Please model this.
Amino acid sequence: MIKIVKTPLQLEQFLNEFRDLFTIPSYGSFSDLCGELSVGDKSKTVSNLCDTMAECREGKKARSSYNWFFSDANWDENEVAQRKADLFIDKICLKDNDKILLIIDDTYNEKEGTQTEGVGKFYDHSKETYIWGNNFVTSVIQSKGLFIPHKAKMYLKNDDKNENFRTKIDIAFEDIIKPLKIPRGVNLYIVFDSWWFSSDLIKKCLKLGHNIVCQIKSDKKVGINKDMHFQVRELAGQIEEKYFIKTKINVRGKKKIYYAFEKGVTLDKIGDVKLVISKRKKDGTTKYFISTDISRSTKEILSIYEDRWDIETAHREANQKLGFKDYQLREKHSIERFIQLVFSVWTAILLWELENPILKDGSNKRTMGDMVDRVKMQATGETFKYIITYFNLPVPDRGLLHLLKNVGMEI
Model:
């Protein structure tokens, strides 16, 4: 493993936007740790992040100082999350009436032992089995086909040790949805699957001026013509096949076909919504979606809900490439801070890529993994440059540095 002598070029300008949120020493730790998160090959524990920094790196601190940064330093990870969102929104140049999505879900992280706060036995639906670990309420901000991870807040089970128990729905609203600030005139849609459906949550979001697009379960009752109420599966069974309209949408670069029927209905305690009933001809599966913005077309509602998948991508790639779940910290507060740094690195790399696109060669859209590899390559080049400069050697016209320049490094 090559040791890193400085924060990678791709992150420097972005990280500088956060200086006012930290003391000078804490900003140094923030910059150091973000740099190592972006390039480290081992699991992203504090110990391994320290090992990734070269001993000659200017300002390198003891491991205990970086642990203290997560546990006791005076900074607010929620302010970092909002600043990160502001920079993303500013970069994509949203205008009046543009839409932005806040996607809500949860994820699990398996852990051994009992020393980490919040660990317990949880049923992981994706694995259809119980796991021992942490559970996080997570979120992604998405617009114009781009997305960034926003926040991850730990869920603590309701037991004798947890005097201030909150449900995952409470955490989603109080810690993620309500605090998020967006530009005036931009339309925010909260997107989630049927597990998160809650009349209370939806009413609170509507009160903030936001809209909801979500899936609902087949037994949910809807009202028609004020005095008629049906479970949505009953309603779907009464609609003739000829009324289901073929609808094509683009889903992650591919075309997907829905056969859908839409109808204005009412939901108890919520009011008027647009219901979309979708059928798959291959297997006969029927799904049900609602939008509190009744002006949205069937195609728009289905497209918005399909974008919910971005949060699954964020979970996977943030973990595989940036160590989202590699923390070896004990306290909830420290763990949430660590994850926010991971999400900040994701955003920094994405925004740098938008400003410095590689030449189009007909290849597929670059993944976060591709982008991280580009950062690692740049950091390797900077280390070689440091060595050559240290020994006062001339930069060769050919050889390694020449090759590194030819593949796009800023040397």
The first strand starts at residue 99 and ends at 110. The chain is about 40% helix and 25% strand. The mean pLDDT is 88.
